[in-house]
Structures are given as structure tokens and as C-alpha cells.
Specification:
The structure holds 2 protein chains of 2 kinds. Chain A is an alpha/beta fold. Chain A has 2 domains: 142 residues, P-loop containing nucleotide triphosphate hydrolases (Rossmann fold, 3-Layer(aba) Sandwich), CATH 3.40.50; 31 residues, no CATH class. Chain A has a 6-stranded parallel sheet. A two-stranded antiparallel sheet of chain A has the order 1-2. Chain B contains 19 helices and 28 strands. In chain B, strand 22 and strand 23 form a beta hairpin. The longest helix of chain B is centred in the middle third of the chain and has 24 residues. The radius of gyration of chain B is 28 Å and the shape is globular. Chains A and B meet through strand 5 and helix 2 of A and helix 2, strand 17 and helix 9 of B.
Chain lengths: 175, 655
């Protein structure tokens, strides 16, 4: 069982991987991999998930748990008996619970002995770096290709290109 | 024993007031244990040996919300509890670690502050006749080191005016001679540290505390209901109640009666009750009730929601129900409002963390909320004829509002997200059920928000009765002679912006400048003046006839604008951050405060006047001399447009 993020980048059972990638890369990896439906999948996210509304998985093997404190996250990881454990990183859980960074990192590592464990964030932050220290692999996918469709729409609305540069004028202004 | 203040310092100090008004301190030795549960005690036998030898650890069993657990009682502090967590790699479950010991003592003894009859805790009839002193300081505490102009009201009113050191020394003298039980003081929490520094420097005794001791609360910024709030650090005197009349939410909303009621329910000293948010008060109330019932309070919130299918989660996590109104003017409208809907649902449907798996068990939350809900019903009824109950009613309203949100709060000791979702799910069902019922009886449903429904039709009393029968919840009715639902920019109806004339002749206003705290005074008062005129109109026909009179108010305000006192144009904002990446008026105001040497923190309120909106130039309220007339004219125009809509929109009559 494996998740293919990009050609040549796959995640396998028995590993704990920390992944930094654009959201659309991750949602595509989760949505466009029918093989994942065959395995018990636990999606873990906080109160303000950026991914969950874009996930189209309806299989009964796909479960969600939302910890709202770092203590709850630790409980969720320790109780997980799924083949795939995907954690959408929520730095706010550790704002007043830095004491739990090391135990949570260890619990992820421990869970990664049996399962495919992914800790995901769209960008690096301090708690993520601390948790990722115990990961088997740290994978960073940089957005160089086609932009996220949502980003593209936002760019169109703001009059900028998806890469942030202003759009060239395409019509003449009529006075 | 009428307890005025409580402190934990090597035991519990209760400051008790006798019938003659004399306040004395009673000290009780008290060192309660905390509780420890380990899934596998044998794996930690060395640690347990040390705890037994050095911290009087003993095997015992105790009751959590979910049943009985075997474990150990340990006499130690929070630091020890945290060491146990580390030592056990966070396997240990700990209880009663962070319960306030004075509160725990009172709950165990069955006593509570601000009352002496054990059976009267849930009564709205209690004495507030405390010796009080009001201190109104005119100076701005953010910009002046010591106050120079103070009005003191005790038995009589005295004004102190002069150099700071003289005024403060005189103020100390007055506090000492009047010896009040309650001091109501503007910006007390900002002034007291300054007074203390002054008294140390001059070798004076600061007389606010009865024994010279003060408790310290540190300052903090925090998110509450989607906005950043800031709480100043506070020095809290022993044996006397000191309320910061500007910063205390509970005092502002509920007055002294509200503070005392909060103290009675939560088991916290009035000094603390005045400084806490309603959310902290309801959680403290739950803690007091848990201790009283012999239930231990978890130290960490470790029990996460259960695993769910994505579709189930999406179906459950949807919040309250809304019916969008069609913008317009409506005649003869009834607003049906469910009293304390969410807490009533908790009670009626027995919703509590432990009843999710075991619905037949009597839930903790319903049991502890039931008396508060019935007390609120009583005060809501009584305040109509006896205004002295209004403060208590408002306090109860806020506590009950937050008790629902608290079930989903991440750190709630007795909360769980599934309970939160179950409550909103019931509320959605109830609102839909009520709408269907109203429509089946020939009513037209105009608008609905979570626990309120606006309907046209009759007889409304029969509908109310039927709603009560069908839902089991009580719906109150307010009748509008006319009501205006305002449009959003896209033309659809706004959920929360409306105003109308109630049948008692008063106006009910929501979401427009007249009610908004951030609106400049000049605009707020212009709109209030307009609404006062509109209030004389009993129907839409009469409303149309006051149009010219109302428009004249607008035109006169526009004309007076260039000559207005800049202070009346101050815009209030509660800042959510102190660094801004984009140019904006709020960011410019924060910088202007800093330029004047005033430190700002997230959650603080600032007031500024816009000098040049296009260049993002603003002045703090105290510095403003000129202002951007076109900018304020545009604000005035917006306020007028909200009012003018009542004269231009389509009138919808029943039937």
C-alpha cells in the first residue's frame, strides 16, 4: 500500500513522513488514488481544516477525528489502529502545550512502525519542525507547476496573476 | 456566614461580614489532594513509591463524569502533577489539579459567597446593601502617571483636584475613613499598580486591602467569540471587593447585583467573578457543582471526539438554522423568541458528554443547568415589573448563552464537541418544526435566526401555545407595529440588520449605527434622533408622513458636520493585532497610539479620528484637531441610507 504524491515520490506503510506541499497536491493525492479506498484511513485535523472540505472520499473505511488540544491529538494517535493515519498539522494545538511536541512526535514515530503515517502542512512552522524531527522522511514539494485552481480564481478576482504579478491590460478602457 | 471575599494562602481565608457590617478574616487549614489514575500502575511502581513516601499518596477510588476510577490521592501542587505527566510519558490521568482551592473548599463545605442561607443560592432575592464607594477618575490612565481629578462618592460626593501625589494621598485617606465593602472604580486595574508604585516610593500604605495583601492577575490577550480581547493585569485586594467599572464585563452588563449573583453561582470571590468572562463563570459554576457532587475535575482535556465517517461529520457540523428575510417594511409582525433555547435543549434532551453513549443516565450538564435555566425564566419575567432584577437576568442570560458554546470549547472540563453538535442539530429541528407549524396555521414566516422566528398572522397566542406543546420549549412574543429588514449590498436580506417599532411604543434596533459601539457619537446620535421620530409612527402610513422630518435631521447633521467637535467623531475599534501588513486606518491608529507613547496589545480598544482617509492619516482621540469631512459625510450617508430604506422600500402587510 502506498500513496503517490508526485512521480517518484511515494509514501509507504511502516513509515512516518512529514510532508510540506501545496494543498491541491495533497487533495489530489488523496482523491485520485482509488486504491486508498481498500484500507482503513484515519484523517486527523483540527477545528479549521483547510483540506477536509476538498476531500471527496465517502468510503466507509475513511474516518475523521478532530482533536482540539494537543492532549487529544496524543490520545487520537495512540488509539489509532488504521493502516493510513493522515494528520493535517494544526500549530494552534501547541500554542500552550509545547511540552507535548516531543511525546506527539514519538507517538507518530511509534504509529509509523505499523501504519503509513503522514504529517502534513502547507508550510513549515516551529511545531511542525519539532514534530518532523522524529519523521523517517521530510518531503517538501514546491509549487512550480500549474497553480492551485482556488488560487487561480482568487488571482483573477484580485486582478493579479496566480504568481502575484499584476495582469496585463487586455482591453482598452472606454472613457 | 456571609462571605465577602475568599483567598487561598496556606489555607483558605474567608472574609466574612456580620449583620453590623464588620468584616473579619477566618482562616481554615486546607490542603486537598489531587487524584491520579494510571492504566498500568505496576509500570510506574518506583514513582508511586516516591509519591507515597514524600507526598502522602494513597490508593483510593474516585468518581469522574464517566464513572468510578481506581487511583491515588496525592498531596502536591501543579508542578508535581506536571512532573508526573512527564514521568509517565503522558499516560497518567490527573484530576482536581487546577481547581481553585478556596472554591473547592466552599463547594465541599456547601457554602458560597455573598449569601448565608444555604438554600438560597438559586434565588434572585438577596441583599446587595453593601457599604460602597464609587471612585471616578477623570484622567486617562494610559497617558498619566497619577490621577489629578477624582470624584469620590460614598455617603456624600467629594471632588479631589490637584497634583497627582496630593490627590492620591487624599484618596487613600478617604478609602481608609469610609472603609467600604465594595469599591467601584473606573480603570481600577490600570490605576492600582500605579498607586502601589507611588505608595512604595512615598512610604504610604495603600488602603484598598484589609490586610495589606494583594493577589496578582497577569495581563493577557485572548480570542472570545471571534474577536480578540485584552485583559489588563490586576491587583486584587484581600477582604474588599474592588471592581473595575470600565473593564468588568459582568459589572457593565449586570451591575453589582450581577457580580454578586455570578459569585454566588460560581463559588468564586466577587473580586474574581467581576474579572472573569461569562464563559469562565459558567465553567467555574460547573466545577463548583462537580466538586459539590463528588465528581473530580479533569486536569487535561484528553478525550477526543470519536472517529466518524466524513459524511456523518458534514451532516452533524452545521451550526444554527437561518431563514433569510426578504428586505422590506412589514406591518404587524411577531417575533417569537425561544427563552434560553440551547440550555433548555441541554436540559430537555439530557445532553451531556457521558449521556452520548448512555442516554438513559441522568446527565451532569442537564442537572446543573436546570436550576439556572429556571432562575433565568423567573428573572426574565420579574424584570418586566421590577427593574432591580434586570442585572441578574442579564448575567444569567450571558452565562446561559456561553454554556452552549462552552460544550464545544477545546478546554472545557465538561464539554465535548458531539454534545455541541447534538444541541445545534436539535435547535435546527425545532426551528424547522416551528416554521412548519406556523405555516400550517396560516402564518407567514418572514425571517428566522437560530432561536427566533418573525411571523405575520394571527392568533399568535394560539401559535405560541402550540409551539410549547410540540417542542416543549417556551417561546416569548414581541409584537412589532412595523419592522424594516435591511438589504445586504447584493440586494438579499441581511440576517442581523433590522429595526422596528414594538407595540409598547419603543424601538428595537439591531446592527445599525444607532446600536453599534464602534460608530462615531455624532452618527449614532443622528440615527437615534431619527429613530425617535420614527417611533411616533404607529403604522407604515404614519411612517411615510414623518419622512420629511427625519430627512431634515439628516440634512441638519450634514450641515453641522464641518463644525463638529472632533471628539464626537471618534471611531472605536478593538484591535486584533498590533502589526499590519497592509495600509489601513486601524493600522494607522495603532501607530498613532505608539507615537504618543501608549503601548497597545491585541484586544485593546482604541479610539481615533480620521484626518485624511485617502492618505491613511488618523489621530488618537485626545490629539485630534481636524478631520476628514468627506469621509465622515460618507459615513453619515450610509447611516441615512439605512433609515431612508424605511421610506423607499416595499410595504408588506399581513395577508
Amino acid at each position: 500500500m502506498q500513496i503517490r504524491l508526485r512521480p517518484g515520490i511515494t509514501l509507504r506503510v511502516g513509515t512516518f513522513s512529514a510532508v510540506i506541499a501545496p494543498e491541491h497536491v495533497i487533495t489530489a493525492a488523496l482523491n485520485e488514488n482509488p486504491e486508498l479506498e481498500r484500507f482503513l484511513f484515519l484523517f486527523v485535523c483540527g477545528n479549521y481544516s483547510r483540506l477536509i472540505s476538498h476531500i471527496g472520499r465517502t468510503a466507509s473505511s475513511f474516518e475523521v477525528r478532530r482533536p482540539f488540544t494537543a492532549d487529544q491529538l496524543l490520545t487520537v494517535i495512540r488509539e489509532a489502529a488504521h493502516t493510513i493515519i493522515f494528520i493535517e498539522h494544526d500549530p494552534s494545538l501547541f500554542e500552550t502545550a509545547e511540552r507535548l511536541l516531543e511525546p506527539v512526535g514519538s507517538a507518530l514515530k511509534e504509529a509509523g512502525r505499523e501504519a503509513l503515517v503522514v504529517l502534513y502542512a502547507p508550510s513549515m512552522d516551529r511545531p511542525f519542525a519539532a514534530l518532523a524531527r522524529q519523521a523517517d522522511r521530510l518531503i517538501e514539494i514546491v509549487n512550480t507547476g500549474e497553480p492551485d485552481p482556488r488560487q487561480r480564481m482568487a488571482a483573477v478576482r484580485s486582478g493579479h496573476r496566480a504568481d502575484g504579478r499584476p495582469q496585463a491590460q487586455t482591453t482598452l478602457e472606454v472613457q | 456566614m456571609w462571605v465577602l471575599d475568599t483567598v487561598y494562602r496556606d489555607g483558605v481565608d474567608l472574609w466574612c461580614r456580620d449583620a453590623s457590617g464588620t468584616v473579619t478574616r477566618k482562616h481554615y487549614a486546607y490542603d486537598p489532594p489531587f487524584y491520579l489514575h494510571l492504566a498500568d500502575p505496576s509500570a510506574h511502581h518506583e514513582m508511586l513509591d516516591v509519591l507515597e513516601a514524600e507526598f502522602k499518596a494513597e490508593p483510593c477510588s474516585f468518581f469522574t463524569l464517566f464513572g468510578e476510577l481506581d487511583g491515588f490521592s496525592v498531596h502536591g501542587n501543579r508542578q508535581l502533577a506536571e512532573q508526573i505527566e512527564q514521568q509517565t510519558r503522558f499516560d497518567a490521568r490527573l484530576f482536581n489539579v487546577d481547581v481553585r482551592r478556596d472554591q473547592q473548599f466552599m463547594a465541599e463545605q456547601g457554602i458560597f459567597p455573598c449569601g448565608d442561607d444555604p438554600g438560597s443560592r438559586f434565588s434572585a432575592d438577596f441583599s446587595c446593601s453593601l457599604r460602597r464607594m464609587e471612585i471616578c477618575i477623570r484622567d486617562d490612565p494610559a497617558r498619566t502617571p497619577l490621577c489629578t481629578e477624582v470624584e469620590v462618592t460614598g455617603d456624600c460626593t467629594e471632588t479631589l483636584h490637584g497634583p497627582g501625589h496630593t490627590v492620591v494621598a487624599d484618596l487613600f485617606g478617604l478609602v481608609e475613613s469610609i472603609d467600604p465593602e465594595v469599591i467601584l472604580m473606573s480603570h481600577a486595574d490600570t490605576w492600582l499598580p500605579k498607586f502601589r508604585a507611588f505608595s512604595v516610593e512615598k512610604g504610604l500604605t495603600m488602603p484598598f486591602s484589609r490586610n495589606g495583601k494583594y493577589r496578582q492577575m497577569s495581563s493577557r490577550s485572548y480570542w472570545s467569540y471571534g474577536r480578540m480581547e485584552h485583559k489588563e493585569a490586576a491587583l486584587i485586594p484581600d477582604g474588599r471587593v474592588l471592581i473595575d467599572t470600565d473593564e468588568s464585563f459582568v459589572y457593565r452588563e449586570g451591575g453589582l447585583a450581577g457580580v454578586l449573583m455570578a459569585s454566588r453561582l460560581s463559588g468564586l470571590s466577587p473580586n474574581m467573578a467581576a474579572r472573569f468572562t461569562p464563559g469562565t463563570l459558567i465553567s467555574s459554576y460547573e466545577v463548583y457543582e462537580a466538586v459539590k457532587r463528588g465528581i473530580v475535575v479533569p486536569f487535561r482535556k484528553a478525550d477526543a471526539e470519536t472517529a466518524r465517517k466524513l459524511a456523518d461529520l458534514r451532516a452533524a457540523d452545521r451550526g444554527g438554522m437561518m431563514f433569510q428575510p426578504k428586505p422590506g417594511i412589514y406591518e404587524n409582525v411577531n417575533e417569537l423568541d425561544f427563552t434560553s433555547m440551547y440550555p433548555s435543549i441541554i436540559v430537555r434532551y439530557n445532553l451531556s458528554p457521558e449521556t452520548l453513549e448512555n442516554p438513559s443516565a441522568k446527565g451532569f450538564l442537564p442537572a446543573v443547568l436546570a436550576p439556572v435555566v429556571s432562575l433565568r425564566r423567573e428573572t426574565k419575567e420579574r424584570k418586566r415589573t421590577e427593574p432591580r432584577y434586570a442585572g441578574i437576568d442579564t448575567l444569567l442570560k450571558w452565562m446561559l448563552v456561553t454554556c452552549f458554546g462552552y460544550t464545544g470549547y477545546k478546554n472545557a472540563k465538561f464539554g465535548r464537541i458531539e454534545v455541541h453538535e447534538a444541541i445545534t442539530a436539535r435547535s435546527r429541528d425545532i426551528l424547522i418544526q416551528t416554521k412548519d407549524l406556523a405555516e400550517s396555521m396560516g402564518f407567514v414566516v418572514l425571517h428566522g435566526i437560530v432561536d427566533c422566528l418573525w411571523v405575520q398572522g394571527s392568533p399568535v397566542e394560539v401559535l405560541q401555545q402550540r409551539i410549547g406543546d410540540v417542542t416543549g420549549l417556551r417561546a416569548e412574543n414581541e409584537h412589532f407595529d412595523w419592522i424594516v429588514f435591511l438589504p445586504l449590498n447584493d440586494g438579499f436580506g441581511a440576517y442581523n440588520r433590522y429595526y422596528g417599532r414594538l407595540s409598547d411604543g419603543s424601538m428595537k434596533v439591531r446592527g445599525i449605527a444607532a446600536r453599534r459601539h464602534d460608530a462615531p457619537d455624532i452618527i449614532r446620535s443622528m440615527q437615534q434622533e431619527m429613530l425617535e421620530v420614527m417611533c411616533t409612527a404607529k403604522d407604515t402610513g404614519e411612517l411615510a408622513r414623518v419622512r420629511d422630518k427625519v430627512r431634515k435631521i439628516y440634512l441638519a447633521a450634514l450641515q453641522r458636520l464641518p463644525l463638529a467637535d472632533p471628539r464626537t467623531l471618534a471611531i472605536s475599534r478593538r484591535i486584533s493585532r498590533t502589526r499590519y501588513t497592509h495600509r489601513c486606518l486601524e493600522g494607522a491608529a495603532v501607530q498613532a497610539y505608539r507615537d504618543d507613547g501608549v503601548e497597545v496589545a491585541p484586544g485593546m480598544k482604541i479610539r481615533y479620528i480620521v484626518r485624511d482617509a485617502r492618505r491613511y492619516q488618523v489621530d488618537p482621540e485626545w490629539r485630534a484637531k481636524t478631520f476628514d469631512v468627506p469621509y465622515y459625510r460618507s459615513l453619515m450617508e450610509k447611516a441615512w441610507n439605512d433609515i431612508a430604506y424605511a421610506f423607499g422600500g416595499r410595504v408588506m402587510r399581513p395577508g
